[in-house]
Specification:
The complex is a heterodimer of chains A (366) and B (124).
Chain A lengths: L2 H6 L7 E6 L6 E5 L6 H7 L9 E5 L5 E4 L13 E5 L5 E5 L2 E5 L3 E3 H8 L5 E6 L6 E2 L5 E3 L7 E6 L2 E5 L2 E5 L3 E3 H8 L7 E7 L5 E2 L5 E3 L5 E8 L2 E2 L11 H10 L3 E6 L2 E10 L8 E7 L12 E4 L16 E4 L2 E6 L16 H17 L1
Parallel strand pairs in A: 1-5, 6-12, 13-19
Antiparallel strand pairs in A: 1-2, 3-4, 3-5, 6-7, 8-11, 9-10, 9-12, 13-14, 15-18, 16-17, 16-19, 21-22, 22-23, 23-24, 24-26, 25-26
Chain B lengths: L1 H28 L4 E6 L11 E7 L2 E8 L7 E5 L9 E4 L5 E4 L2 E3 L6 E5 L2 E4 L1
Parallel strand pairs in B: 1-2
Antiparallel strand pairs in B: 2-3, 3-4, 5-6, 7-8, 8-9
The chains are: A alpha+beta (366), B alpha+beta (124).
Bound molecules: zinc ion.
Amino acid sequence: MTSQNAAGNRPANSTITIQIAGLDLNFKAVSIVDPTPTGAQIAAAAEVLPDNDPFVLRFLDDGELVPILASEVAPIDDVNDRFVVTSADRAFRLKVDGEQYDWPAQYVTGKTVRKLAGIANDLQLMLSVENEPDTVIGNRDLVDLAVAGVERFYTVHETWKIKVQDTVIQSDLPTIKVRDAMNKAGFDPAQPWHIFLKVAGQPKQEVGLDFDVDLRTHGIEKLRLTPRDVNNGEAGNGFRLLGVDEAFLAQSGWRWRTVLDQGRRWLIIDDYRLPPGFSSTAVAMALEIPNTYPGAQIDMFYVAPVLLLANGNRIGATETLITIGGVTYQRWSRHRGQASPWNPKIDNVRTHLTLVDGALSREVNQ
Amino acid sequence: MILIDIAAKWIRAEYARWQKRIRGLFERWRPPFRLQVVDGDSLPPVVPVGALVLARDGNEDWCVGMKCPCGCGRTIELLLIPEAKPRWSLSLDPAGLPSLSPSVFLRDGCRAHFWLRGGRVTWT
Ligand SMILES: [Zn+2]
């Protein structure tokens, strides 16, 4: 479309709006009271004075910059027509992926090259410099176009990185399976591992070999590997207690373990000291942990070996014997009183053991 | 034949008993494991003999590592983070000596099974 046609569509003396930017390519709408402005009028609208050698370029959609002379009438089709106005009088040539662009300044930033050539966000801008290794050009990097042989830019797919333990691996794709990342880093996925994905500002996540790690995730850090070659004493047979219980047991100094036996869950403390007056000085103390604990209460307690009083007398309500893991335990049928019912919010292994201790003391203090 | 079976059983039991006793004696002579803290979420490439190395990432304790107390040379890594299963709890006594809970049981190799309490190893 020619300038005459464009102008012909508008009444004379009307105002037109175009987009004008400086070398930052930040376009702003500017109004001109002339439907057929010349290069000089556009320069004036951009507030570049005639003394400063205004240089007006039409910025086409494909990134091409077409110079408009001061006396030349600019072809204007649309309110979105874009012009770059600067005070240089000389264009510098640069190439991006073989396409040629003219840039009206000696310096250009990576961001501007990206805008000029319309480079997609997932591509990385590179600059090839003769006799030097090619460099990555970041958005804010400044390139001097006057230096000979620096005008060749090209784009590559961004490489995606993640640490596997202490090894950094690269991926051409933005996602990678845990298994492939481990293989690349030299870890054998056939071995058993604990694998945790660490992302800054997010809770760590245990992942499996077929988990797809999205390397575009902000703050992605590493896959943290630990050989899965150690058990606690239960050889995989145990279960987890509440955090407060584990912390309490850890600081107690007892040897303890959790045991699953025919669908029942047991906490066993192997060296539970008794007050004097029993036939043994210490027992294995077993507490049954219901599946719905702590909603459901811990009730009674179980000891091995079977206890009598030191004088040989039997103890009341301890007649029932059960086996846990092949060992015979004596059930002490002791229950919470009506005055102190189980409270899931405050009761746990520790509070139950205070009741256990009370029940034991009562037998020998009578 | 029955007698031989009984004798073999007895010899095995006695052997295990003595092995345990000798190990117990040895543990009295071994200096206690002492805590060493390293920065980051991972153990250093070499874990010194006699050290319980704690990898602390910021204010988060990730794992501890130690040389297997049986002398097999293997490095044992135990996760402390709450998300792990199994996981261990580390505590220090007033003298700064470390305890681990629950016990440590190696699935393969030497199949060592022990508790670490107050820096000292108790074999089970
Ligand atoms: Zn070992």
